[in-house]
Specification:
5 helices; 0% strand
Length: 171
């Protein structure tokens, strides 16, 4: 591969950051179609009882509380939790998008298929394993199978969109 065939990783990170945010919004659109509840965000809905002390609280809000406690020593006020959860969702979307962009800058031919694989990996390692190990997400058996499948679908949509959009921007 010649030097001309690759892009600057910082440029890739910036493009990935942007496409990660757009893909997070596309993921929200997926959820609106799947759940048939326009405006209802799944990251704001409990997915079953969590294994930690924060029962019935969505994982994004639990993470927002943990960050707030680390920075200020206090949880986020109840009325601000939904917005904080949305912030965690988009923060995660742009962070994973930037990471994808760095890799895509080195391999500009990566596209939606590589992105879908990336999205599936995020679902497996973040949603299905890490959140449960950290006792932020519910035990897998407490979540109906169709919700696991829908979450995988959401991450496939996110990854595919990130892959496709990043590839377009790197051209």
């Amino acid at each position: 591969m010649s030097k001309k065939d690759t892009h600057n990783p910082l440029k890739g990170a910036l493009y990935g950051f942007i496409t990660g945010g757009v893909s997070g919004a596309i993921m929200d659109g997926y959820w609106a179609l799947v759940k048939k509840l326009p405006g209802a965000r799944p990251e704001q809905k409990p997915k079953g009882k969590n294994d930690g002390q924060n029962e019935d609280q969505p994982s994004t809000q639990i993470i927002a509380d943990k960050v707030s406690e680390a920075l200020t020593g206090e949880e986020i006020p109840r009325k601000h939790k939904p917005l904080a959860g949305i912030g965690v969702h988009y923060g995660t979307s742009v962070a994973f998008g930037a990471l994808y962009g760095v890799v895509a800058a080195r391999r500009p031919k990566l596209g939606p298929i590589a992105g879908a694989i990336y999205g599936a990996a995020i679902w497996l390692f973040l949603d299905e394993i890490t959140l449960r190990v950290l006792k932020i997400g519910p035990k897998p058996e407490k979540v109906p199978t169709n919700e696991h499948i829908q979450a995988l679908g959401a991450h496939l949509v996110y990854g595919s969109a990130t892959g496709a959009l990043t590839r377009i921007m790197l051209r």
